[in-house]
Amino acid sequence: MTESLQALSFEAAFQQLQETVQRLETGDLTLAQSLELFERGVRLTARCDSLLENAELQVRQIVADGAGGYEPVPFAAWQEEEL
Q1: Looking at residue 64, what DSSP letter applies?
Q2: 39-48 pLDDT, tens per residue?
Q3: Residue 55 and residue 15: Cα distance in Å, rounded?
Q4: Which candidate, 2, 44, 70, 79, has a CA 20 to 30 Å from the CA of 55?
Q5: Total of domains in the chain
Q6: What is the largest CA-CA distance in the chain?
Q7: Counting Cβ atoms within 10 Å, is residue 38 exposed (0-12), middle (13-18) or buried (19+)?
Q8: Burial, 35: exposed, middle or buried (Cβ in 10 Å; 0-12, 13-18, 19+)?
Q9: Which residues form the domain of 24?
Q10: How far does Cα 73 stand from its chain's mean position?
Q11: Digit-coded pLDDT (tens) for 8-23
Q12: Is 6 exposed, middle or buried (0-12, 13-18, 19+ CB in 10 A)?
């Protein structure tokens, strides 16, 4: 559990989140342990959410190129189009 959350992939963070929830659901923890795990679960949720938001932005940046294909568009250009 000492691994930095920022270094975790989505899959690793989600796996740890699932394990955290399972441990909390057992009810065999002290209040202090439960609070510690709950806090970690919140941080893992935030990490997963951040990674999903970044993935969504990458998907949105891919646009049709007019020739039946797709090309990546820099995020800054995409933002200007939305305004």
Answers
A1: E
A2: 999 999 999 9
A3: 18
A4: 2
A5: 1
A6: 61
A7: middle
A8: exposed
A9: 5-82
A10: 22
A11: 999 999 999 999 999 9
A12: exposed
